[in-house]
């Protein structure tokens, strides 16, 4: 959308740029408004600035426009009013602001009191960035973001990222051909998947499972709801063919200290997209926290890591793998340690060693009794085992092997320490089981796209190993290693086992749940894991309920 000069002038009362792809929101936008408009990215590919503009002009839902004095103004009148304001509303406190900035310069700059920057949060937006940008941002543990959903937004083949290094190389045509082929297969699979789900869940059968509120709606409303849910099911399948070059939009908040770190690290990133992003983030975040973004020069130490230490650890091509999950390491005597942490938290005095000895002296039934008391009053919506973090003091390290799309969702659990290698099709790829139940051409198209993508990756990575990731599909097998506490584990598995979730990461959740219970059977009240039974039978018959929870129900559709 092309903005008029009047629209640009008005919108820049709220954002640091009306045109650049990465920008910050000024403090004239209340946090709740940023959150509301940012959440649209999950359902709507429009730039957040367009939603702001619609709100200013009064063309969004309520249509009230701006309230000036005791009246509302809309359209060009609202734009002109904003454009004529000589200062931004936030500048009314400038006198105090300058003194605060002097304080920051002395204590943050001179004495490096970085804790000051931890409490200054910067709201940012990135439009038309690649999936690789989103991956890198997610690795900051304090970055909270909303991303364009692959379930509710159908990505378009004319909106793909072209890496400048590749564009100027002999691989430009190879890159474009691979990305285009993935999008052809993506659109084909989406059509096949819609037909498949409409046959599997006919409209009349779908109606039988609807709520009274839905059934009372008009026929057109019910039909639109059915079509939305069919589209969501289809996009859950076709997303496996989205390339990493598919552009997305994100809104995020990050504290100034972490923003400063990311800028310095990203300036040495092997992808030009990320290096350019670092400059734009520095420019626009710097307008929000000018006193705090001081140490943003390129950091060669972190750049060395981002560039894989110049291939110094390269072992060549390794074996491919299948979907699965393993507990790599766990604390010995985890039950006694967990009980000791709980006892220490709820008693006065005593060092941990004493409480640990007490826990060891208890029999198994007594220890399970303590866990039963903890979860006695736990309700369906009580996410955590305790309000504090006693259970998270017992750590576990796991590996999840899945497809890139599912790993993207596991990566979002930012309280975990996470590590991943670069993407490659050398690990193989995951073919969703339902593709085999569709028209034979669906699988043929899928596999042909994998062949073209793999061939392009092998060619491009000879000279551009990092840029080759752009031509890879979400279906490519990938792994993530994660380390966290047992409370985080039970929360994460509850979240990712939801029937409304993508079927791929839901399968991962049950794989990881089984691996966890095999190494920590006491989480379900077992002294030893019951061999010879399927995991779901082990889970359903567990002596200890309500501590380690999964969502085992099934839903035919999702909103």
Keywords:
single chain, 559 residues, alpha+beta, 4-stranded antiparallel sheet, 23 helices, 10% strand
Secondary structure layout plus pairing:
Elements: H1 5-11, E1 22-24, H2 31-39, H3 48-57, E2 66-68, E3 71-73, H4 75-84, H5 94-110, H6 115-118, E4 121-129, H7 131-138, E5 144-147, H8 164-167, H9 172-200, H10 203-208, H11 212-215, H12 219-238, E6 248-255, H13 256-266, H14 272-288, H15 300-306, E7 324-330, H16 334-345, H17 352-361, H18 364-374, E8 395-403, H19 404-411, E9 417-419, H20 440-460, E10 477-485, H21 486-496, H22 503-519, H23 535-540
Helix pairs in contact: 1-4, 9-12, 9-20, 13-14, 16-17, 21-22
Architecture overview:
The chain has 559 residues and is α+β, with helices and mostly antiparallel strands. Among the domains are: 5-152 and 248-255 and 280-310, no CATH class; 164-245 and 430-471, no CATH class. It is built from 23 helices and 10 strands. The strands form 3 sheets. A 4-stranded antiparallel β-sheet has the order 1-4-6-5, with helices on both faces. Helix 9 packs antiparallel against helix 20, helix 13 (256-266) packs antiparallel against helix 14 (272-288) and helix 16 (334-345) crosses helix 17 (352-361). It is globular and about 75 Å long.
């Amino acid at each position: 959308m092309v903005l008029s000069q009047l629209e640009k002038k008005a919108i820049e009362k709220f954002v640091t740029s009306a045109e650049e792809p990465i920008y910050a929101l000024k403090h004239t936008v209340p946090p709740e408004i940023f959150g509301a408009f940012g959440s649209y990215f999950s359902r709507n590919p429009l730039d957040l600035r367009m939603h702001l503009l619609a709100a200013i002009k009064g063309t969004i839902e309520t249509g009230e426009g701006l309230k000036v004095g005791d009246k509302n103004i809309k359209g060009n009148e609202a734009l002109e009013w904003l454009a004529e304001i000589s200062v931004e509303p936030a500048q009314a406190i400038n006198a105090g602001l300058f003194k605060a900035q002097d304080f920051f310069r002395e204590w943050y700059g001179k004495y490096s009191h970085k804790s000051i920057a931890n409490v200054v949060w910067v709201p940012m937006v990135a439009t038309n960035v690649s999936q690789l940008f989103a991956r890198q941002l997610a690795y900051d543990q304090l970055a909270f973001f909303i991303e364009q959903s692959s379930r509710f937004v159908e990505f378009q083949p004319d909106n793909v990222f072209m890496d400048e290094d590749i564009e100027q190389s002999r691989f430009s045509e190879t890159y474009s051909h691979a990305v285009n082929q993935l999008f052809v297969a993506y659109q084909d699979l989406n059509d096949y998947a819609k037909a498949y789900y409409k046959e599997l869940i006919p409209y009349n059968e779908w109606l039988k499972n609807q709520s009274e509120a839905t059934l009372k709606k008009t026929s057109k409303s019910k039909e639109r709801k059915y079509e939305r849910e069919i589209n969501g099911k289809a996009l859950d399948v076709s997303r496996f063919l989205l390339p990493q070059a598919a552009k997305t939009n994100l809104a995020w908040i990050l504290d100034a200290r972490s923003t400063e770190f990311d800028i310095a690290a990203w300036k040495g990133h092997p992808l030009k997209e990320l290096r350019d992003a670092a400059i734009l983030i520095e420019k626009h975040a710097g307008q929000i926290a000018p006193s705090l973004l001081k140490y943003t020069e390129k950091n060669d130490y972190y750049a060395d890591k981002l560039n894989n230490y110049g291939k110094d650890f390269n072992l060549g091509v390794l074996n491919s793998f299948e979907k699965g999950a393993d507990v790599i390491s766990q604390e010995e005597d985890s039950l006694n340690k967990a009980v000791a942490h709980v006892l220490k938290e709820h008693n006065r005095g005593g060092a941990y060693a004493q409480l640990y000895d007490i826990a060891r002296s208890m029999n198994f039934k007594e220890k399970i009794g303590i866990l039963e008391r903890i979860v006695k009053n736990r309700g369906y919506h009580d996410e955590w085992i305790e309000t504090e973090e006693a259970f998270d003091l017992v750590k576990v390290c796991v590996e999840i092997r899945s497809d890139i799309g599912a790993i993207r969702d596991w990566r979002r659990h930012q309280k975990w320490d996470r590590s991943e290698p670069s993407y490659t099709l050398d690990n193989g790829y995951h073919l969703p089981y339902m593709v085999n139940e569709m028209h034979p051409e669906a699988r043929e198209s899928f596999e042909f796209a994998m062949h073209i993508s793999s061939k392009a990756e092998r060619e491009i990575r000879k000279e551009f190993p990092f840029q080759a990731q752009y031509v890879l599909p979400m279906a490519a097998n990938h792994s993530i290693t994660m380390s966290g506490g047992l409370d985080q584990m039970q929360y994460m598995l509850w979240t990712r086992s939801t029937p409304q979730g993508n079927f791929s990461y839901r399968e991962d959740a049950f794989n990881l749940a089984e691996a966890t219970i095999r190494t920590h059977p006491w989480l379900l009240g077992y002294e030893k894991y019951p061999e010879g039974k399927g995991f779901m039978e082990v889970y359903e018959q567990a002596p200890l309920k309500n501590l380690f929870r999964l969502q085992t129900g099934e839903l035919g559709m999702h909103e």
